[in-house]
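Protocol step 4 of 5: obtain the predicted structure for the target chain.
Materials: sequence only (see below). No template structures provided, no constraints applied. The aim of this step is simply to have a reference model before the mutagenesis design in step 5. Sequence pasted as it appears in the construct record:
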Amino acid sequence: METVVSKKLYEAMFLVDSAQAADWDATIATLKDVLRRADAEIVSIRKWDDRRLAYEIGRKNRGMYILCYFRADGEKIQEIERAVQLSERIMRVLILSAEQMTAEDIEKDTPASRAEKEAAPGEAKAQKADENGERESPAIDEAETAAELQEPEIADVSEFSVDDESAEPVEEDDR
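Step 4 output (structure tokens):
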């Protein structure tokens, strides 16, 4: 008698060195190859974000996080984790069950996609202005600029010292 195994939905966060992630096609090909060898069906692969790492991993201090949803047999998860450990391109992976996720949850914007959407309108406007020969200067809030340019007042503290018993400044002449 043969057992039918249903594939469950999983969420994986892959961490890749930022320098190697610059070659996006090769990075995605590596991820797809790891998942293909485990007979996983890829639902979604998206760039999450490029961030500074809390601690160095293999002498790297920045990493690109890639969010991936896939369907696979639960027994194949260890194979995926082992393939990641052997991979030179992928530094870490975290795989979680995502059975409770809806299609809307899976398609939510990532920090990287939000940044691209926010940058896209500004780039399109700048490109159109360049084409028309009317490059606009960026809008500057005058009050904010004036506050940034104003130097902070610094008191001359060379005449004072702190008395150990009280936290108030005492003039040198009074000691």
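Step 4 remarks: Confidence is low (pLDDT under 50) at residues 134-149. Strands lie at 8-17, 41-57, 60-72, 90-97, 160-162, 169-171.
Proceed to step 5.
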